[in-house]
Amino acid sequence: MVDAARHPKVDVRTYTEVERVEGFVGNFKVQLRQKSRYVRADRCNGCGECALVCPIEVPNYFDMNLSPRKAIDVAMSQSVPLLYNIDRDACIECYKCVDACGKLEAIDFGIEDELVWEDIGSIIVATGYNHFDPSVIPEYGYGRFPNVVTAMEIERLANSAGPTAGNLIRPSDGVAPKSLAIINCVGSRDKRFNPGCSNFCCMYGIKNAILLKQAHPEMEISIYYMDIRTPSKGYEEFYDRARQMGVRFIQGRPSLITEDPETRNLYISSEDLALGSVIEQEYDVVMLNQAAVPQPDVDAVSSVLNISQSPGGWFMEYHPKLRPMDCPTDGIFLAGACQGVKDIPASVAQGSAAAARAGRVLHSDEWEIEPVVAVVWEDRCISADGKKCGLCSKACPYGAIEYEQGKAAKVVTAKCHGCGGCVAECPHNAITQMHFTDAQILAQIRALLADRPEEKILAFRCNWCSYPGADLAGTSHFDYSSNERGMRVMCVARLDADFIYEAFRLGAGAVLCSGCHPQDCHYITGQPVGAKRVNRLMKQFDKMEMTPSRFRIEWISAAEGDKYARVINEMQEALDAIPKEELLDEIERLRPEMEKRARRMKEAPQVEEALEFADRLTAAMLESKAEVAE
Amino acid sequence: MSHTEAAETFADRVRAIPGGEHLEMCYSCGTCVSKCMIQQKIEPEYNPRRLLRLVMMGLEEEAFQSPTTWLCSECDLCYPACPQEIHISGVISAIRQLAIEVGYESPLDTVSVDEAKCSGCGICVMVCPYEAPHLIEKEIDGQMDRVSEVDPNICRGCGTCVAACPLGAIAREGVSNAEIYKQIKIKKQNGVPRLVVFVCDWCLRADDDVTLLESYPENVRVIHIPCSGRIDPEMALRALRSGIDGVLVCGCAPGECHFKRGTQVSSCKIDLLNRVFDQMNMNDGRVRFAQIGTQDRGRIRGEVDGMLEHLVAWKEAR
């Protein structure tokens, strides 16, 4: 950290918050709030005279509130930069520190927060994790029984720079404990709080046990666990070492801790799975190995950076296996536990990878994106006529569309990922998606349904899940009906209701809309946007008294080839079950209705027009690129 | 590719019964086993985790014969503690239901109704936490009569109905009124207060607490009952009438009662009794009810000592 602070190209800003982020990859504008320390960084030499005279003591959060600190102090002794800071919530403004500082005049109560804008090329988010508060688990008695402590409290109590100078004592009476129990999975792997595994706690508990056993060989240490997870290199050996040192491992999750009111000793009752019977053991101190949870302000951070969260509150990566350090938003990268709980080696690896990725942005003059971006047909956008709309901007999961009443909506091409959600959402056909224009998609639908449409099953598949799912069905040689006609869209969000009306108008036997499972959408929120639209259609078709089996919505992942084949076969069976005459009658009956509903299509640009527009657009893009180059 | 239906397993049949769902989520952490006191108190073979395992492995006969299937009292202490949120007592009930369907019978000591005494008032139906009793029309001594009948496969033998029956028509072996009344006797000693402690089998978790309670001298008589719901105010009155100075009833904390709501029923009864004493101007705190929670290790000492102190003071004041 000291090296980083000294590096001429590294600018460390501590006690600073990101207020706003604008722009896009390589061209971010970031507003920073440098919070006031009430101490001038350029004058303070870190002598500490001010803290000596300060009469106010507050709990020291770095020591897990086990020791006091002054209202003017450094966060911890290894702070970089070593700057003092006044806790104004506690300060009584006696100004003794100002007197103690004397001629240096480093303390100034008049300093205010400073807001600055910076040009930033790429952003790495490394906000880490927080500790689960075990006081919400009543059966462990944390907060009521003084000798039930958390892992971090033990960490400080056993640390030579901690409040007890490394002498481990128990909080109730200050006596060195003779026995210690470590309980794993406190708040993790527990559906009541956090269903996930906290990844590092097994190793962390073993580490604490080994350290304490080394310092106090006579201490009896037991670890209560459900499963010991030591999957990385050298971890199992570490676990073996703890066993060799005499640490007792008890498989069984404690269900209750009780306290002897006189001795303040604790009794843990648990089942010993190896014995198959309930055991109750007495300990001096119990350490709760608490779960890792997201930082309390993740929502604020994700809204400032416009990045999404996975279930549970961790920041969402671009792809869990292939791009774990990238955010879906280009130019923003993730490092460490903020993306998901991980231990030190994994955090270091991800941090280095994120740094390399960020460097790639900083060193390139051009940024390549997929060509399937959305573009606005400016003369069709009603916002340009001063009307209120903004539907496109709301549908965009990336914040790539700038909307302002009175101006045509504007797509920031560098931010657009090409889901097509805005295109389907626009009620005036004012946005189109390159390579997936309405005209192109309609032409495909018409071609696929040109011959005996009533026998066909038209399947819309999203590019990322259902299309590969269908591919897998093929490569796995699963039999499915040859009447299926597959069509690719980038995302179900691109599915305009008109496409489905048109398919039925043309007399399609059945239509399938398939996409990713809700939590797996490649475009963050594309699936829900599309799902809402097609579910609405389902209701309309019910009202029209269409045979329900003719329209189906299914979420099929890339790994579910069997599901794809099954769904198509089921649809074929259902279609076969309708007598041919009845089916043809129904198609004829519904045709005028479908035509009426797809009225917007009549205004849709034709292929020639779209091609002409695309040419114009390409020319404009090349022009603007030339301008930038100049 | 064929999509044939898999044969229905034993686990599927358990899951199909409402309450029996999610049993496949169990990862055998043992929380339910140690939260429950049946293994420690009465049956070492009792183990819900293993029962769920038997079901998952399809060992149907073993599951039906397991004491766990029959001993669970559905107190649901384990349910809020289960990290996988499995409603364990629901699963056990489902297994029990299947066992009963194929002819297994509950091995528990249950209550029996003396039909000659029963008036068919239905109070037992109201107080039972398990809906075991119900009223039936039956011919008794040549006459049609309405009497209570208890389903022995549902009854868990808590005795709440025994205490509630105004005619003494229901009895459970070992804890009938006569057997309890016989125990309410303490030899008279000069100046030493005499105290009867009714203690339910479940509220004292720690063995140390049980030992402690048993170690009190002769003037403290400990009477074990299956549930504090078994308490009949008449027992307290009999004790006081025989010259005993005080009565302490110990039951589980609300929400932790081993028999669902015995502790609520008995706390109402003792409250009511004390209100009657109030009206008679003789409420001097000699009948008390203590609700001891699962985490109240060592509290029994304070309760008994406090009661004894109170009785000494009361005697002196008289």
Give the SSE map:
The complex is a heterodimer of chains A (630) and B (318).
Chain A: H1 2-6, E1 16-22, E2 28-34, H2 49-53, E3 57-59, E4 68-70, E5 72-73, E6 85-86, H3 96-101, E7 114-120, E8 123-125, E9 129-131, E10 148-150, H4 151-157, E11 179-186, H5 201-215, E12 220-225, H6 235-244, E13 248-251, E14 256-259, E15 266-272, E16 277-283, E17 285-290, E18 292-294, H7 298-305, E19 332-334, H8 344-362, E20 374-376, H9 391-395, E21 401-402, E22 410-411, H10 421-425, E23 431-433, H11 438-448, E24 457-462, H12 466-475, E25 484-489, H13 497-505, E26 510-515, H14 526-543, E27 551-555, H15 561-577, H16 580-597, H17 599-603, H18 607-629
Parallel strand pairs in A: 8-19, 10-17, 11-12, 11-17, 12-13, 24-25, 24-26, 26-27
Antiparallel strand pairs in A: 1-2, 2-7, 3-4, 5-6, 9-18, 14-15, 15-16, 20-23, 21-22
Chain B: H1 10-16, H2 31-35, H3 38-41, H4 48-56, H5 60-65, H6 67-71, H7 88-101, E1 111-113, H8 123-127, E2 133-140, E3 143-150, H9 160-164, E4 170-172, H10 177-183, E5 195-200, H11 207-214, E6 220-225, H12 233-241, E7 246-252, H13 262-279, E8 287-292, H14 299-317
Parallel strand pairs in B: 5-6, 5-7, 7-8
Antiparallel strand pairs in B: 1-4, 2-3
Helix pairs in contact in B: 4-7
